[in-house]
Known about the structure:
Largest interface: A-B, 23 and 15 residues
Largest sheet of chain B: 4 strands, antiparallel
Helix content of chain A: 40-55%
Structural class of chain A: alpha/beta
Largest sheet of chain A: 7 strands, mixed
Oligomer: heterodimer
Helix content of chain B: 25-40%
Radius of gyration of chain B: 21 Å
Order of helices and strands of chain A: HHHEHHEHEHEHEHEEEHHHEEEHEEEH
Amino acid sequence: xxxxxxxxxxxxxxxxxxxxxxxxxxxxxxxxxxxxxxxxxxxxxxxxxxxxxxxxxxxxxxxxxxxxxxxxxxxxxxxxxxxxxxxxxxxxxxxxxxxxxxxxxxxxxxxxxxxxxxxxxxxxxxxxxxxxxxxxxxxxxxxxxxxxxxxxxxxxxxxxxxxxxxxxxxxxxxxxxxxxxxxxxxxxxxxxxxxxxxxxxxxxxxxxxxxxxxxxxxxxxxxxxxxxxxxxxxxxxxxxxxxxxxxxxxxxxxxxxxxxxxxxxxxxxxxxxxxxxxxxxxxxxxxxxxxxxxxxxxxxxxxxxxxxxxxxxxxxxxxxxxxxxxxxxxxxxxxxxxxxxxxxxxxxxxxxxxxxxxxxxxxxxxxxxxxxxxxxxxxxxxxxxxxx
Amino acid sequence: xxxxxxxxxxxxxxxxxxxxxxxxxxxxxxxxxxxxxxxxxxxxxxxxxxxxxxxxxxxxxxxxxxxxxxxxxxxxxxxxxxxxxxxxxxxxxxxxxxxxxxxxxxxxxxxxxxxxxxxxxxxxxxxxxxxxxxxxxxxxxxxxxxxxxxxxxxxxxx
Lengths: 388, 158
């Protein structure tokens, strides 16, 4: 009998399974549960984008592309960054098309990290940063962002976390799960701290098109930051293209050169038909993005208003498609609250602790659902909290 | 408030309270705006989109192209009025192109529709010709795709 525990990678074995996973297992055989847990758009990819992929298949475009993606797509991405954020990235050697935003995050970490480096990760945040840093041989250093700071990373918190070993700062805004964003002023303050260091920023901007009331600002557009910033972005959230696995990195050519080597050996290239779809999205998808953003915004106001009217405190999220209510006043842990909500009210939301220990007292509710669906869930939540 | 109209066009069942939250307005204001739209004839009614094929009821729908001799001063309006007042007529449009009026009618049987065309439409003065097209299948109506009910297949993933 093979002794797996002595054989398999210690690093892999030490990785903790995602906290959400455990929670989702509770749901797997429950058909009667109204779920507000999903972290992807409820829209189908716009038809003209799907058609572009189908046409590429009809024409037999089923080959590998160049490692960094088709030049056509890199040019379209470059044009998009200029058009939307006045940032210049050379299609030739500063853009890599990746398998989703997740691969972009992995490339950035692996290209920067030496064993023993520290990676600063503000939490609550999407669950992948810590494990990927671990796999790259780094030590994750978490900063707990505060509700009273609107879950932004502050300059003081950052300063306190920096050591001589700090290599990378992850900047996950607009934020999953809180919906927090960083304004230009917020980023200026962070940039001020970073300027005297050699720290590189991994800015995960996958939700950049989903901000409400103000435009997203990339830290790369703050003076002196472009040279030390890797932007991870993708098509999943903005264009409802999660299943296509289309992401990209934007970084100075010196960094891109290292990331590209990892990408070419581990992945070769992103799926070709998805790249054709992505070109269509970049060229003709602006109106789709606006339509979906407007719809998310209406749901956002609806759900925040609904939660507040039943007496649940809820920070006003300005980005992504999640609300992150404070449920601490009910006297239950996040896990207990969410488990009882499933068992007693048939509504599923995700405990804040799935996004870091500092998520205790909070829960993530996705509004990537129809208003009708959200309304039913809110009704049940209201009944449930009256029993507490 | 065209945004309000667009929302209602998609889902007329949303309550004023829900609409107020979605649009960041007061419920009273929303009620007032909707009432004004109703009074001004901007909102003409609230209907349900039904897939009758999924019921037991038998029916046929047809589109009839009519060519008309327009009348001095009144153009097509008089003829149109004579047509749209029939309860069988579900929709009526004045068209550009090869014919003038598009009449959408619904009847119990093909025979009933055929007789309606022959006896009621063709006999109207100024109607020069009719051309009847029976609908075989409805794929999409009022922005709703007919057929299978969509299921949320999104995976719980992390």
